[in-house]
Amino acid sequence: MTALWEQPTGNPSSVHRLGQRARAVIEQGRRAIALAIDAPAADVVLTSGGTEADALGILGPARALAAAGRPCGFACTAIEHPAVTGAAAQLAREGHEVVRIAVDPCGRVDPDGLAALLRCHPGIGLISLTAAHHELGNVTPLPTLVAVIRATRADVLVHSDGVQAFGKVPLSFSRSGLDLLSISAHKIGGPTGIGALVCAQHVQLLPLWGGGAQQSGRRPGTESAVATAGFAAAATVAAAGLDAWARHVVPLGGRLRDGLAALGGVLYGDSGTHLGNTVLVGFAGCDGHLAMMALDLAGFACSTGAACSAGTIEPSAVLLGLGCDRRTARGALRFSIGADHTAADVDGLLSVLPGILAAVRAESPGLEVT
User: Is 308 a catalytic residue?
Assistant: First the structure.
């Protein structure tokens, strides 16, 4: 990226030399991103990030299905990332049928229940299932669920938010059976402000806005050669480092979960199929927002839910979706471990946490939540 900033490039849609230099960088980057996700390069649509990729991957095909007079209803769980539930809300405002897929207390989708839902709602034309959960850390058995969908309703398109899973667990678009997959650069150490929607060629996709014919008309707007190069570099490193991630980060996640449980924390999610690095934990009688601020002062960054919801004091929508009451949900903290963390980092957190929990509990006795 630094090298590209230091030399002039043109608009990648231009035919002059500088423009074609930028075009070459973008197409090379697109091929690298596609290779990392095991997809055809032509299927990779560059976006401004994971949120736009989810919006395009949900609104685009649903609107195209409606325009073609085909079933265009949408289904997802209530605990999807806000980028997905926000797109669902927009579809509902536009008059599309929106159906919620039930999950169990661990956040898992029952295959038989999914099949029954499809049979009961023939108007569904698109389903979105997260590949790995952004708060719980659950890894979704996508091949199993996609096979259920295909066996029940072969015409239904399937989208997955793969932002949290990409770079942490193997993801193969070609072998997944998916029609659409969203990924993002910043989750794998790349630059912010760029992501991608992997969209199979058979999917009719209406762009979110007009203004140009870039990327075969699927996403108008001038592509960034610099950001694409950074995304491609990060994707290449992430794909090659999956084994190293599993050897280093997953054991640290286990160390953290064991330590939090020993402190009386309630761990949420499915421990059997887990990313290993994301932990959502609740502590009785403790306000998560106050604990988060105290931890920040102690040098530990965490959140009370999805990072994009930071700055609010609303309880985790995910835990509410799992059936927790608002008071319980407000006591949750979300920790994430990265490749640069060490056992000393985990132990340092666990050493300061008891004092912080005691102080927070003392400061907010009888806290009422409305």
Answer: yes
Cα–Cα distance measured from residue 286 to residue 173, given in angstroms and rounded to the nearest whole number: 41
- Per-residue pLDDT band for 366 (boundaries 50, 70, 90) equals low
Give the model's pLDDT for residue 13: 87
Question: Torsion angle of alpha carbons 6, 11, 13, 15, nearest 10°?
Answer: -80
Q: How many CA atoms within 13 Å lie on the side-chain side of 144? A: 11
The full set of domains in the chain, from first to last, is 2-240 (3.40.640.10), 242-363 (3.90.1150.10)
Q: CA-CA distance, 205 to 154, in Å (whole number)? A: 18
Q: Express each pLDDT in 152-190 by its tens digit.
A: 999 999 999 999 999 999 999 999 999 999 999 999 999
Q: Which residue has the tokens 């401004």?
A: 48
Number of neighbouring beta carbons within 10 Å of residue 115:
16
SS3 163: coil
Please report the pLDDT score of residue 369 as a whole number.
37
- Check if the beta carbon of residue 125 is closer than 8 Å to that of residue 95: no
Q: Which residues contact 140 (CB under 8 A, 6 or more apart)?
A: 109, 129, 130, 131, 132, 133, 160, 273
> Taking the CB of residue 138, how many other CB atoms lie within 10 A of it?
28
76, 302, 308, 324: the catalytic one is 308
Q: Which two tokens stand for residue 20?
A: 């074609």
